[in-house]
Amino acid sequence: MSEPNTREITYLEAVREALTQEMRRDPSVFLLGEDIGVYGGAFGVTRGMLEEFGPERVRDTPISEAAIAGAATGAALMGMRPVMEIMFMDFITIAMNQLVNQAAKIRFMFGGKASIPMVIRTPAGSGTGAAAQHCQSLEAWFINVPGIKVVAPATPYDAKGLLIAAIRDNNPVLFMEHKLLYRTKGPVPEELYSIPLGQAVVRREGRDATVLAYSVMVPRALEAAEQLSREGIELEVIDLRSLKPLDQATIVASVSKTGRVLIVHEAPRTGGFGGELAAVIAESEAFDYLDAPIRRLAGRDIPIPYNRTLERAAVPQVEDIVAAARALAQEGR
Amino acid sequence: MATEIIMPKVDMVMDTGTFVEWLKKEGEYVEKGEPLFVVLTDKANIEIEAPASGILAGLRAKPNEVIPVTEVIGYILAPGETLPGAAPAVPVQEPERAIPPSPEFTTDQAVPRMGPTTGPDKVRATPAARRLAAELGIDLRHVPMGRGPRGRIQRADVEALVAQAATQPSAPAAGMTSAPVTTLFGIMPPAGIRLPDARQKEVVVLSGPRKIIAERMAYSAATAPHIVLSVRVDMSEASRLRTYVQEHFQQKTGQRVSFTAIIARAVAAVLPQHPYLNASLDGERIILWEDVHLGIATSLEDYLIVPVIRQAQNKNLEQIMTELAALVERARTRRLTPAEMSGSTFTITNLGMFGIEWFTAILNPPETAILAVGQIVDTPVGHEGNVVLRPMMHLTLSVDHRVVDGAGAARFLTEVKRVLENPYLLI
Amino acid sequence: MTEFVPHPILDPAVIPRGSQQLLRELPKERLAWMLQKMCEIRYFEEKAEELYVRGLVHGTMHLSIGQEASSVGSIAALRPDDLIIHHHRGHGHTIAKGADLKRMMAEFLGKECGYCRGRGGSMHIADIPGGNLGATGVVGSGIPTAVGIALALQMRRSPQVLLAFFGDGAVNLGEFHEALNMAAIWKLPVVFICENNQYGMSGPAKVMCAVQPLSVRAIAYNMPGQTVDGNDVLAVYQVTQAAVERARRGEGPAFIENYTYRWRGHSKSDRNVYRTQAEIDEWKQRCPIARFKQLLIEAHVLTPEEVETIDAQAKMAIERAAEEALVCPEPSPENLEAEVYAP
Question: Full-prediction pTM beyond 0.80?
């Protein structure tokens, strides 16, 4: 990031900047959600935006997730570009009917005569001590619904560029923000820019094993790679960024190169997106290059516990990635 | 401490012994004094008794392996004992009576075993190892136990095998142990054979039909003792017959009468009187066939197939001719069914059209005889006191000496000659 | 024009009747159009049933025979550029909103030239350029979506109004309450129309709903509520008209209950075991089409011959639509994935 207008800002600020700049650019973009106005959002993402854009475009709603999702869907059907916020991803369950049966289906069901350009922003993930109903990572549900796209940025730069792309996309896009990433800092250009959905990025090159990660697992995987590098093990870390559409080419190329792959995600292992990633690899030409079984390191099949130690133990930590990646890289060598 | 099983010195002047076979299996419980394995000395096979009671482990001697005396060829483990050098101790269960082979035990990484197999034919290997092995034409069954978990063969194992074979030509490579190992070539080349130091043009993977031919021919050449007999046949009358019927057949069937068809008809007519040449060796049985299923070796551009004329003994020249023409045409266009390419009881192979005067053929298993046909060449021969030019043709018969002796083969071959020189006998 | 009365908690006995005055005020052509649409709906659905019986229909369907006054009376109160969103029992709204009968029938038959190119079928007919924003198959799903549509209209300062149709089965969903509340606090230009045909599949509204009439629910959202004789097309028109114009003035949503009856089963799998034949027969005596015909003739708006001509023309239009739709091409299963996402 050597552009003159690039500065270090937080992931949270990057999200806010994307929203603000898109709302300035396009009057059809507006926000709706619980406590996003005066309060500034439960995590402060929209703080200050009410003052600039007023209550019509930074629209506080009742605690009515189904109606929020319906309002976004209907407005999008009319050509607006709503960005709805679900305060915690767990609450998206209330909105499922609108998102799954309406927003995702309308285009296809009506013979391609309509589109639903909307974004569902929602903080996901654990690590804040908020326990079982405020910490979930429910991306796999949505990935299995044709008609919705799913994005999970890991850096401030991506948060801004992907959110802008999501707002401009003509489909419902689930935009997963991670609570633990909100405070992380990184270089972000002041200008508007968008990152195409469906492009993964190789965060670190390596020869010994590929680690597929997204969201908060990307910085953890990079930290693990740094530690293993001191042991002479070089991990290739891929940040998927966009889960659907998925950049299969980058995954296949990397796994074909290293012959080993560790899939890391926070969501519970069983039925998680990692299974899909494993299948994608096994079905691809990368299969012929696999020199070890595909491994998954995922959240345990338990609700997120409250206690700090238990909470940490529920999802992959840096040391878990180190151990799993080391074992994988050394297996049969 | 595990009890060592060694190659015993059972003869005063013996410094190596040829290992014949284990009488017990890896993981099996053995009582001290029970017969354990067999060794061949220059006098006889000798059964060697177990030196202790316990579980057999780390058995490493292979049949036909020549082993220096006193070399350790395996271990007997008492309860609580582990193999020397085995890192995590493998607890041995207290045997109540004889313990059947335990899968946990036999597949444990600590136990060196040849062949990382999980079943008779299954090889545990990564996709990458399989892919590389396929590219290099290496049969993974002959890669020693892999370095992966539970002996899984990794890409690195295949690479190591290749590297070792290339850099240490005088010593057997890791996968090429001193024991003879059957490969797709039949027998692994002996140690010391190395590839020439030349620039490569192309590497063609041995696969598909080529691989099948390689395996079958190597098997046949290595297992069937061939004897080869040859006669020269005067084809004057056969040529006359061919000219005579040519126009008639061509009008009727649109096909030209080939010498191969005439020879096939002669063989089909003669074979039923020579049952051991129309036979198969199946283990310890010789099966004599009632039917003559005549295989006609046919060369395609890159390999060889053998379409079969079934029950040729019941078919006249016209039937054989039209059937052969149809089979060859289908073979050239690769439309033959597997059933049409297998199951022959006798094979005829003809290189006459390539100008070859005579050659010997390798038996097409499980057949016991194959007839190689050469070119018809006008040759000066003695005839009624004069040297005259006659159209002569070599017939060269290979037979499996396990089933057919020279005299039997000769009787058949001369009978075929007699019929071809008097082809009107066929009508 | 009748002024809308806020919060009339009505005794069903005093449900307003269609005003004789309307027969004089409305142009003859408008009244004839209403009859024409009601006849088209009836014949369309009878034709649909016939095609189903002949094995030409792949899925199921939900018939609104007996409810024609509800859809036509409501939609007659709209301007051409106003919008509707509706539900699985939606043939009537679609026809009343001006859909092309052939394309509708083609969609019903799953054909490529259908409104949704055979992707939606009977339950999901949408004609977006015609202001029909689609029928939804999950009971009540359209109600929150309606909030969004109306929100977009409001944010754009559009004069358009949305009618959101749903059945009596939808009013006990959480989505209904969330949506009505949200529409009310934001004063959105939407009129919620509950077509109370008395059964949510087999569940009687009288048993399943804690309060009667259903329009009473409007009180909770501080919006006007009105129950109307849903088999009286002019009564429906009159009440809807008042609510629509109120919404158009920016005074917010209203809730109307069209009290009616479905003659046919819930869908084609219904064996009608939850109600009596006598009840069905009684409601058939209150046929909205026969009533309206009689009214038009008695008031000398139309002659009996004119009424018969409208009826016969509607029947012919449906026959022609079916004939044309039957020969439409089948859609291709190839490349369907490309249609899931908008470019």
Answer: no
